């Protein structure tokens, strides 16, 4: 995502955060936005419809109303309508990511992306969460799990710009690079 898009998205995220705090809805709004982000990540059709300037505003609002009416807080639904009216709905995922980043900073929460070849068990997830808490000195950790069979084994942990690659494919790549230098 470009810097320009983040600059445009940041005031919207900050305004939404302020509104959620003012109305004492921070946990509910955060949960609703996480759901919307999950839906957007799995629905290419919805994503392309929202970002298509040829689809009129009323149609977009009707689709959002039908999708989310009884699932999300009215504050979020109205926020989505504002984004549609201002032709900024194409930035929705960026705005949500920025909002979550701001709320996690408030809560001292670290977001850790974990890519694994197979799904982690609950015990493995809790162990890695504890290790991340120790590494980052944060109170909370939000794990975002991704399954990537190309890793062959192990996992790749990404926290901000820091990447820890313990995957088998990563180790094989390191060996290959080493052997190519010799």
TrEMBL record:
A single GO molecular function term of this UniProt record: proton-transporting ATP synthase activity, rotational mechanism
Keywords recorded for this protein, A-Z: ATP synthesis, Hydrogen ion transport, Ion transport, Membrane, Plastid, Transport
Keyword DNA damage belongs to the record: no
Entry-linked Pfam families: OSCP
Residues annotated as signal peptide: none
Primary location group: membrane
Keyword Ion transport part of the UniProt annotation: yes
GO CC term, one of those recorded: membrane
Organism domain of life: Eukaryota
Alphabetized Gene3D superfamilies for the sequence: N-terminal domain of the delta subunit of the F1F0-ATP synthase (1.10.520.20)
Subcellular location, record wording: Membrane
Family: Belongs to the ATPase delta chain family.
HAMAP family for this protein: ATP_synth_delta_bact
Protein name, entry field: ATP synthase CF1 subunit delta
Source organism: Bornetia secundiflora
